[in-house]
Amino acid sequence: xxxxxxxxxxxxxxxxxxxxxxxxxxxxxxxxxxxxxxxxxxxxx
Length: 45
Known about the structure:
Layout: H1 4-13, H2 23-28, H3 35-41
């Protein structure tokens, strides 16, 4: 679960939460990332 510190940092740096994880991490743990994450990085299912 994302904590308040993460939310504040994301807002402060104006980044997408999807940019916090490298595509290789998303590919390695597909059960932890839904299709929105894959779409953000252009990863095929």
